[in-house]
Amino acid sequence: MTATTRTNNLSTNNKFNIPDLKVGTLDVLVGLSDELAKLDAFVESVVKKVAQYMADVLEDSRDKVQENLLANGVDLVTYVTRFQWDMAKYPIKQSLKNISEIISKAISQIDNDLKARALAYNNLKGNLQNLERKNAGSLLTRSLADIVKKEDFVLDSEYLITMLVVVPKTNYTDWQRTYETLAEMVVPRSTNLLFEDHESGLFSVTLFRKAIDDFRLKARENKFTVRDFQYNEEEMKADKEEMTRLSTDKKKQFGPLVRWLKVNFSEAFIAWIHIKALRVFVESVLRYGLPVNFQAMLLQPNKKNMKKLREVLYDLYKHLDSSAAAIIDQSAMDIPGLNLSQQEYYPYVYYKIDCNLLDFK
């Protein structure tokens, strides 16, 4: 505390309480050391996945996301700085291997559940977006079902049919002048403007069925686009109902999904910090031997002083391990794209906890 906080304010420190865990045998510890490293990476990835999916579901409103990403009901930094081992969930009478297996099983379950829930919700969201996309956009591509009415069409006629044509706004005069002569058998004065967007208008026109192909061809030559559209009340009603159903389903699933993410984010994050505690314990026993006699500390470095903090800690503890001297320079080199965490080695046991779990777009 004197070296890092009182004189030069390099970091904010808290005691990190690790209970009296069962040590077991040396070879188990050595094996466990590797297993815990893998488990640490896996659980961190699940914590980040749950957080990222929470951001996707809440559609990236940052404040909303942050207030849902809590551990045991408090924000992450508070949870870590006041860390207390959960005796009920991870009984310390069990061996370290058993504790790590309890965590591994629980987090694998969360990972699998997340995949299933995300798939179901994403499908729903995707289908809804496709329908919404159909009802928006240009008149050349969008669904016309919510634009036209029954009375716009000549229906149930053996000989006549009403076609829908998209005409650019700049060509309205051309359309009015030429539509009756684009093919034989166009009903005179049968055109009506049904709808406009900012680029074009949707016109109806009635003609004899046998003139359809001819009319299409001539319309295209004149930059008028005939839309393929059959007025079908049943179909249009079904589409509308589908949209309502998907929208209702999405709303219904949203609340329970956010609650599930909130609960399981907390579970996963808590498990992750317990793994950090296990790793500190195992590594310290392997390094410093028995009886267990060490203190774990949590340091929140002040950003600008990271390098200085490393130097101070190195000077303080280099007597514990001479082989670390050669490696101390590594942390000073920042090589883009190269992850040095595998090679980070200090004369003290060190693990990083990253509480910034989200890349906001």
From TrEMBL:
Xref: Pfam families: V-ATPase_C (PF03223)
Keywords per UniProt: Acetylation, Hydrogen ion transport, Ion transport, Transport
Q: Does the keyword Ion transport apply?
A: yes
* Similarity annotation: Belongs to the V-ATPase C subunit family.
Its quaternary structure?
Answer: V-ATPase is a heteromultimeric enzyme made up of two complexes: the ATP-hydrolytic V1 complex and the proton translocation V0 complex. The V1 complex consists of three catalytic AB heterodimers that form a heterohexamer, three peripheral stalks each consisting of EG heterodimers, one central rotor including subunits D and F, and the regulatory subunits C and H. The proton translocation complex V0 consists of the proton transport subunit a, a ring of proteolipid subunits c9c'', rotary subunit d, subunits e and f, and two accessory subunits.
Q: What does this protein do?
A: Subunit of the V1 complex of vacuolar(H+)-ATPase (V-ATPase), a multisubunit enzyme composed of a peripheral complex (V1) that hydrolyzes ATP and a membrane integral complex (V0) that translocates protons. V-ATPase is responsible for acidifying and maintaining the pH of intracellular compartments and in some cell types, is targeted to the plasma membrane, where it is responsible for acidifying the extracellular environment. Subunit C is necessary for the assembly of the catalytic sector of the enzyme and is likely to have a specific function in its catalytic activity.
Query: What name goes with this protein?
Result: V-type proton ATPase subunit C
Per the UniProt record, the source organism is: Cirrhinus molitorella
